[in-house]
Design brief:
The protein is α/β, with parallel strands linked by helices. It contains 19 helices and 19 strands. It has helices at residues 28-39, 73-79, 97-110, 121-125, 127-133, 146-157, 203-208, 238-242, 251-265, 281-294, 313-321, 337-342, 349-361, 379-395, 412-419, 427-432, 451-472, 474-486, 492-512; strands at residues 5-10, 13-16, 43-48, 56-60, 66-69, 86-90, 115-119, 139-141, 168-172, 177-180, 220-223, 226-227, 247-248, 269-272, 299-301, 327-333, 365-372, 399-404, 517-519. The strands form five sheets. The protein has a seven-stranded mixed β-sheet with strand order 3-1-6-7-8-9-10, sandwiched between helices. A four-stranded antiparallel β-sheet has the order 2-5-4-19, with helices on one face. The chain has a three-stranded parallel β-sheet with strand order 11-14-15, with no helix packed on it. Strand 4 and strand 5 (66-69) form a beta hairpin. Helix 13 (349-361) packs parallel to helix 14 (379-395). It starts with a strand and ends in a 13-residue tail after the last strand.
Length: 532
């Protein structure tokens, strides 16, 4: 009997030209799915549209200056093995849904007999909307996918119905009815999840071009320490995907996996994709002590940021000694205590500043994320945040990252905006989400501030912070200028500048190209520089 064959696809990434974020990083979630499917014994093909065409870009001509990075849709469909039975597509981000939808429909047109399943954070947040509006999709995996995708593949191969499979939504073929099964319980022991199958991916392409989720500290590898987040921030969609149950791997297993990657890929920096890794003091202390004992000579980062409640001076010193998160991402979002309550952050401004001060004293470089344009945000909240920004500059925070608010599917505020009809789900909405890390093209969802006002607030906050920062520590200004012109991308601000500069070069090349698809020389990518 022929083994069932599955084709896993990562679509090309999408980005706006003036966005400060990176448009490519290792697909850790897809690698975990590949590991689960592979160990279950199924025949597997992986098409990583970004990694297989790391230097290829094309421009989407819709007036919004949007770039697609990776294989074209034609190139992807031509690579799909005609003998495969299931096509599984990663749909992680809602801002790429318009393009992902086009790819899905093209795949269905080319392979109408294939069973198409999607998963990821976007798919988990809007399963009914997706199935109602995209008849090409047969099923959706909700939340953590490793156990669910294997059970779904098995049921499909054996000709069984899907009513018993927790964690999926599907289209019942006999009646075309959309069925939502109950959510699967989170995987409690995440050490039992099969390791990522990186052999299916072009790891070296990401490493050599410095495409990393964090700042550029050298040869970087994606890893996972924990899953879930116990907090319930009203603007965050992650708990809908990963649940509020925080689960941590054993530090010994993490260290062993790091050793494997150091040996196999010559890694000297690790990007941990965790939502909130620093939750349990005993656990993070144990991890840092083990890393110090092993003396691997590597750095590690938490690019998504972390909570600050348990980080004091002693813990910050331990983290620093272990090589950890030289660029620490804090996520206060607002400097207004009243807004903190509305956002359900459940942390005080005073405690955030104390933790930041302790981290700065220990030698860690602190970055703070701020968001402007929340529904209900007032000028009093803005002024309170302005004072907070000044205080951060005074205590030594090295940079801030102010962004416009975008209501992401799966979050509490998004659900409220849908119920009040202040947000309508359509193609324009999804494309507007693309500007979540693009202050220049910010789109306001505020009931008080226009898009122009949100942009001006962001500019003011940047001026507010850097005026006081450079006034007290003028050497930072000269170092920043030097780093930008020397190509050093080992801080978030210089990495962001390098990303924007690279995209402008890409657009210039595209404007001269007749095909609208170009290969970008490696020259235009940030050059890795290891930080001391």
């Amino acid at each position: 009997m022929r083994k069932l064959k599955v084709c896993l696809i990562r679509p090309p990434s999408i980005s706006s030209i003036t966005g400060v974020g990176q448009d490519a990083s290792l697909p850790l979630g897809l690698a975990y799915l590949a590991g689960a499917i592979n160990i279950a014994g199924y025949d597997l093909q992986v098409i990583d549209a970004v990694g297989q065409a790391i230097t290829q870009y094309q421009c989407i001509d819709n007036g919004q200056r949007i770039l697609l990075h990776g294989l074209t849709f034609d190139q992807i469909t031509h690579q799909v093995d005609p003998e495969c039975d299931i096509i599984a597509i990663s749909c992680m981000f809602s801002n790429s849904w318009v393009m992902d939808l086009q790819l899905i429909e093209k795949l269905h047109g080319c392979y109408p007999d294939k069973f198409i399943v999607i998963g990821g954070e976007h798919a988990t947040a809007l399963p009914l909307y997706i199935l109602e509006n995209c008849p090409s999709i047969n099923a959706i995996v909700l939340g953590e996918g490793e156990e669910t995708i294997v059970e779904l593949i098995r049921a499909y191969g054996e000709g069984l119905e899907f009513f018993h499979i927790d964690g999926i939504a599907f289209r019942y073929p006999k009646t075309n009815e959309i069925i939502m099964n109950k959510r699967r319980k989170p995987i409690v022991n995440i050490d039992l999840i099969p390791k990522p199958s990186w052999d299916f991916f072009n790891i070296e392409a990401y490493i050599s071009h410095a495409f990393t989720h964090g700042v550029n500290l050298g040869r970087s590898m994606a890893m996972l320490m924990t899953r879930g987040c116990p907090h319930q921030c009203a603007f965050c969609s992650c708990p809908n995907m990963w649940t509020n149950k925080w689960r941590a791997r054993k530090p010994e297993f993490i260290i062993e996996e790091m050793k494997e990657y150091i040996e196999k890929y010559k890694i000297d920096n690790f990007d941990f994709y965790d939502l909130s890794a620093i939750i349990n003091r005993d656990w993070i202390t144990r991890f840092c002590n083990l890393l110090i004992k092993e003396d691997l000579g590597v750095t590690w980062q938490l690019p998504s940021g972390t909570r600050s409640e348990i980080i004091d001076y002693d813990l910050a010193c331990l983290i620093y000694k272990s090589g950890g998160i030289r660029a620490v991402g804090y996520a206060p979002e607002s400097g207004s205590s009243k807004e903190q309550i509305r956002l359900q952050k459940n942390v005080s401004i005073k405690s955030i500043l104390e933790s930041m001060k302790a981290s700065c004293k220990a030698g860690l470089e602190i970055k703070a994320n701020l968001i402007f344009g929340f529904p209900g945000q007032t000028w009093k909240d803005i002024m309170a945040t302005s004072v907070f920004v000044m205080k951060m500059a005074l205590i030594g925070v090295i940079e801030i990252a102010p962004f416009p608010y975008s209501p992401y599917p799966g979050s509490k505020i998004f659900n409220e905006l849908i119920q009040s009809r202040d947000v309508e789900i359509n193609h324009e909405y999804f494309l507007n989400l693309l500007h979540i890390n693009d202050p220049i093209q910010a789109v306001s969802f505020s009931d008080r501030f226009s898009s122009r006002t949100v942009k001006l607030i962001i500019i003011f906050m940047l001026l507010d912070f850097y005026f006081f920062s450079f006034l007290i520590r003028p050497h930072r200004f000269f170092k920043l200028i030097y780093d930008i012109f020397s190509g050093d991308s080992s801080s978030r601000i210089t990495y962001s500048v390098a990303n924007v500069k690279r995209r402008y070069v890409i657009v210039k090349m595209l404007n001269k190209s007749k095909t609208k698809i170009i290969e970008v020389p490696q020259l235009y990518y940030p050059s890795p520089k290891k930080r001391n």
